[in-house]
Amino acid sequence: MMLDIMGLSSGYGRVPVLRGVDIQVGDAECVGLLGRNGMGKTTMLRAIMGELPAWGGKITKSGKDLTKTPTQGRACAGIGYVPQGKQLFKLLSVRENLRMGCVKDFSGSARQIREVLALFPRLDRLLDRQAGMLSGGEQQLLAIARCLCGNPDLILLDEPTEGIQPSICDEIIDVLKQLRRERGLSIILVEQDIDFLWQICDRVLAIDKGNVAKTIEPKAPGSTAEAKKFIGIEG
Question: Which of 19, 34, 89, 175 is deepest in the core (most CB within 10 A)?
Fold first, then answer.
């Protein structure tokens, strides 16, 4: 099992958000998280990454207990995180941003960056441009590419299609499918675009009030209508 979350509780200050969540993610599996704003999806990713402490429960990856491991240790254990809003170093160049992602091995950064650019050829011609000068879609590609420079085997993606043009969304889908197929990459994907989720995910967990309310199988009859209920869309 790539990731096993058992009874995870967390939140902000004294305000609980996650309430004893259980989630399992297998090797090369993509699991989606779907739900209205404020239901705990981003909190889940931040707790997995160690940006928020676990108040209770356990997080293990490939059999190793990471519950009390700091964020840097989780990155070194193979977890990558692309937060909502990208959080790029906007005054640095594309090349410098990619090098910042090579946290496991700066000495091998040139090779790692070449391998990642092969997945994102659009970025190759932009290497010397400031990240803040890129379009929104190009910035999203850069954020994912920077994450992959850390050579993770599990990535956490938070709303990657937000404000992005359809052609970039298609690029992201193609790259993620390729990485699952060729490298066995596992993915936890927070997304409100149901069509995007359905193209990538093996299953989707509907999150409501800090817990898993339902597991939705994208290929099952009526799955789209069921998913729409959890994000407040009728019909």
Answer: 34
